[in-house]
Design goal:
This protein has helices spanning 5-37, 63-90, 96-123, 128-154. It is mainly α and 155 residues long.
């Protein structure tokens, strides 16, 4: 039951998988950096009035939220790609619901992370790794949509 859209879906799926893994890896680095070099307070001192538990020493006020949601989107997107690989290999109506539903969940989480990326871009003050993660998240919001359209049109 091969279709003309099967190679397109396979290409988009491979691209999305690689980009989701990169987003999750950069997000993991950012979380590790925040844990190692974040806010420390000595014993006997109180927390400041404007203390945020999602404080990142890199970036701006939106960085913490963006990194957390981007890592979640990256992990869910990579897992959805595994279901998508099975669907592209089988290309049947039985494998479509798993690939479509997990792909849709990954896309909605990617859209949430994309909104936070846009807010982070608006606030300025971030490093090259965060700029790369923002760019990949914005690109993934489009490529994941095209992948979903490719597998839905083939059904």
């Amino acid at each position: 039951m091969a279709d003309a859209r099967q190679p397109v879906a396979g290409f988009l799926l491979g691209l999305n998988f690689c980009m989701y893994v990169i987003v999750a890896a950069i997000g993991g680095w950012a979380i590790n950096h925040a844990i190692n070099y974040g806010f420390f307070i000595g014993s006997g001192l109180e927390l400041p009035a404007h203390f945020s538990p999602i404080y990142f020493p890199i970036g701006n006020a939106a960085t913490g939220f963006f990194v957390i949601f981007a890592v979640i989107a990256g992990v869910v997107g990579a897992a959805a790609a595994l279901a998508g690989f099975y669907h592209v290999r089988a290309w049947s109506h039985e494998s479509l619901p798993a690939a479509a539903s997990s792909g849709f969940m990954a896309w909605t989480l990617t859209l949430l992370a994309m909104g936070l990326a846009v807010k982070e871009i608006e606030l300025h003050g971030r490093n090259a790794r965060l700029i790369c993660m923002e760019s990949f998240t914005i690109i993934l919001s489009a490529t994941q949509l095209f992948y979903l359209l490719a597998i839905y049109r083939a059904a």
